Amino acid sequence: MTPGRTQRQRHRWAAAVTTPWAVWALLRATGTERGYPLVPALAFTPYAAATSAVPLAVAVRARSRAAAAVAATAGIVLAGAVLARAGRRPTPWEEGARRLRVATVSLRLGQADPQAVVALVAAHRVDVLVLQEVTPPAAMALRAAGIGDHLPHAHVLGARDGAPPAAGGALWSRWPLLERFAVPGHFEQPAARIAVPGAPDVEVTAVHTMPPSTSPRSVRQWAADLADLPAPGPGVLRMLAGDFNATLDHAALRRVVASGYRDAALAAGRALSATWTPQRLPQPRLTLDHVLVDPRVGVASLTLLPVPRSDHRALIVELVLPDGEE
């Protein structure tokens, strides 16, 4: 084999290795991921960024300047997208303003430990508890564990006919629910307007979108669920909390945030913290759970805690509300 032919083969090999990272970077930069499996794959962008030195090393070893340039550019794009979520973005608020603590917990098919959930509410003085994957037995177990002693006002929606039993959702609140309703979605997404003393009413939606991980149909359902989430409005302080089954590497979630919300994890400097991990495996770790708030709401802190028998970590967000004259 001639040296020229060998070099061409090395260049082709370097181009082949570089192409997946280049395509990934292009999709992430342009927000043009569509369908299955591209949408679920984008959730792993931090892993693509972490391994982006591989194609660059291959290209350098092959002495392919073109492949090296493409690999380096892809690595910069991917790393930039991930690192853009690092750091804290402090939000201003007035001293003495009303604080609101919101927690979101996925019960994992209703199997999470109800006593641990109630203990979490008590220990962190949670004012509003948002739950996903609520089954009828799980709701009964939470009541038996004493959730009503801490949060007496509830809005629980069981799974509709034909849906999985864990498609239910729930809200528990320290303060009265002035209005109960549901946001359209393939899973139950209860929402309520809450009368918070000394502050404007707060509308909270328990978000749980279809996982886009199994088929083209699931991706379409997921996209529709995200598109149907309400945007912020002047008449109420609106919040979305729960399992979005999406990361900030998904253009569909970024569009929800861009409709006017503030991402609490970004504000608190915790946007790179994973919220979901398979129960029996250490990897992958993905950030699928979010709390999005009206931009008039300040974010004082965000805490992540494990919940026994759940594959999601609980998010506990301390928010600062404008005064009641807003």
Task: Explain how this protein is built.
This protein is elongated. Helix 1 runs antiparallel to helix 4, helix 1 packs parallel to helix 5 and helix 4 packs antiparallel against helix 5. It contains eleven helices and twelve strands. With 326 residues, the chain is an alpha+beta fold. It folds into two domains: 81 residues, no CATH class; 222 residues, Endonuclease/exonuclease/phosphatase (Deoxyribonuclease I, Chain A, 4-Layer Sandwich). Strands 3-4-2-1-12-11 form a six-stranded mixed β-sheet. Strands 5-6-7-8-10-9 form a six-stranded mixed β-sheet.
Major sheet characteristics: 6 strands, mixed
CATH class category label of the largest domain: Alpha Beta
In order across it, which strands form the biggest sheet? 3-4-2-1-12-11
Give helix % range.
25-40%
Mean pLDDT: 95
Question: Can you give me a brief rundown of this structure?
Answer:
The chain has 326 residues and is an alpha+beta fold. It has eleven helices and twelve strands.
Please write out the topology.
Elements lengths: L2 H28 L7 H5 L2 H6 L2 H9 L3 H19 L15 E8 L7 H10 L4 E7 L1 H9 L2 H4 L2 E5 L10 E6 L3 E6 L7 E5 L7 E7 L7 H12 L9 E7 L7 H8 L3 E2 H5 L20 E5 L4 E8 L8 E7 L6
Parallel strand pairs: 1-2, 7-8
Antiparallel strand pairs: 1-12, 2-4, 3-4, 5-6, 6-7, 8-10, 9-10, 11-12
Helix pairs in contact: 1-4, 1-5, 4-5
